[in-house]
Structures are given as C-alpha cells and as structure tokens.
Design a protein that fits this description.
By secondary structure, this protein is an alpha/beta fold. The chain is about 30% helix and about 20% strand.
C-alpha cells in the first residue's frame, strides 16, 4: 500500500565540516582545507552550519558555500543566538528580520531548515512562544523557509508547546542525548533529529544494531515528512563515519 512506502527525502549529516580530528578519520591526507566542504558534501547529504549561531555571515559566504556543494545537497542553518535571547515582540521581530536578511537565502535550493536553538535554561511560556513563532517568515526573496525549534527544559513537555508548533508549522528538534533527550513530535512537514551519543570505541560511532534501528525509524518518519538527521556532539571524531553508515543503510 502507498501509505507504507517512503514518500519523502531522508538527509543525514553532521554539524559543521571543519574539525581537526576529521583530518585523521574522514578527510584524505592530501585534501586541502579549502576543499573540505566540497568533499564532505559529496559523502553526506546535509550539514548543519554552526558558525551562524555565533557570527553573522555575509551573503557572499553563503553563495560560496552553495557553489561548493552538489545539486541535491541541503544545509541546515543555526540562527544567530541573539535571536533567541530577545524579550519583547519588537526585539524578536528586529533580530529575526536581521538574521533572515543577512544572506541566508543566498543558499537558494540548498537551504534546508533553520534551527532556532534556545539556551538550555529557557523555560516554556505560551505567550512568548506564540509571539516568537508567529514572527518566523515562511519565505524570503522567493526562497521557502522552514523552522525547527530546539529546546531542552522539561517545561516544554506539555501539549501547549506542541500545539503552538503545529499551529505555526514548526518542527521540534528531537534529540538522542543522555542529558537532554527529546522525543520526536509530528508538528511540521519535516522531522529534525540530532543524534548525540556516538562513542569513540565504535568505528561507526553507534553500534550496528542502533544504526539499523535509526534507519528503520527515519524510514517510518519519511512516510509522512522529509527527514533531517545530524550526528552531533558525542565522540565527534566518529560522526562522519556514523552518518555514512546510516546513509548506506538507508
């Protein structure tokens, strides 16, 4: 039956592409650093850009990143952290507008979800998140925008938060994490998961049995939604191998 088939894309990757231990575990020894994104984007199907969380990037930089990656490759972009620290609707609007207008959409077709990562201490407040989510634009300069909300406090484990995400078409960032686990919730037309328990003693980060289990889970999600999965944190030196193992299983 059609309902049991995978209907949507599954993309798997890592956070960033510059990490010195990857010179030993991922990149060829003779690969120049300036070609690392070119190489990584042909071994993985998505990468979460972390640098945008700390520093505003130029439109030219986004254009360069897009040009170095193949057709069909998609980035996730972390919104600048100042956006998630504003207090009033006007402050939220100004910071969101500034970030979206900074050049993110220069990625064009290679722009995937934007991850709005809140500080772990941020607690759920319905009025605040109603305002924040309502200000996230659906498009900019003709480029579609999709939004994923990353929160960690237990106060978000309430139906009211899920209802707001669904109302505004935003995904929750789920996490396979010992410290901040968060279950997937189907609130948007895509799923976004961060897999954060890679171990140094495992050649592929996660044991084969767990890679197989995640492949099945992602395929189930993809019956109804696009899926973005990132191996992040944990034993970072193993994350590219973990992503490649999961891609191969899929």
């Amino acid at each position: 039956m059609a309902a049991n088939k995978q209907e949507h894309e599954i993309r798997v990757g890592v956070g960033g592409w510059t990490y010195d231990p990857w010179n030993e575990t991922f990149y060829p020894a003779d690969l120049p650093k300036k070609r690392q994104l070119e190489y990584a984007s042909r071994k993985l199907t998505t990468i979460e850009i972390n640098g945008t969380f700390y520093r505003t990037q130029s439109p030219a930089t986004f254009q360069k990143w897009a040009a170095e990656t193949p057709e069909g490759f998609v980035f996730s972009v972390k919104a600048h952290n100042y956006c998630m620290s504003r207090k009033t609707p006007d402050e939220m609007r100004d910071s969101i507008t500034h970030f979206i207008g900074s050049g993110v959409t220069e990625l064009g077709a290679r722009l995937g979800p934007i991850n709005w990562q809140f500080h772990p201490s941020k607690k759920f407040a319905a009025d605040y998140f109603e305002s924040f989510l309502s200000l996230l634009p659906k498009e900019h300069k003709g480029v579609r925008l999709r939004h994923a909300i990353e929160v960690r406090d237990k106060s978000f484990d309430v139906p009211a938060f899920e209802d707001l995400l669904r109302k505004h078409g935003c995904a929750v960032v789920s996490a396979d994490d010992d410290d901040w686990p968060r279950a997937d919730r189907e609130t948007a037309d895509f799923a976004y998961v961060r897999l954060q328990r890679t171990k140094a003693e495992e050649e592929t980060g996660y044991p084969k049995k767990e890679i197989d289990s995640w492949a099945k889970t992602l395929k189930d999600w993809a019956k109804r939604r696009d899926v973005f999965a990132f191996f992040i944190a944990g034993a970072k030196e193993r994350n590219p191998a973990a992503a490649q193992a999961l891609i191969a299983k899929l």
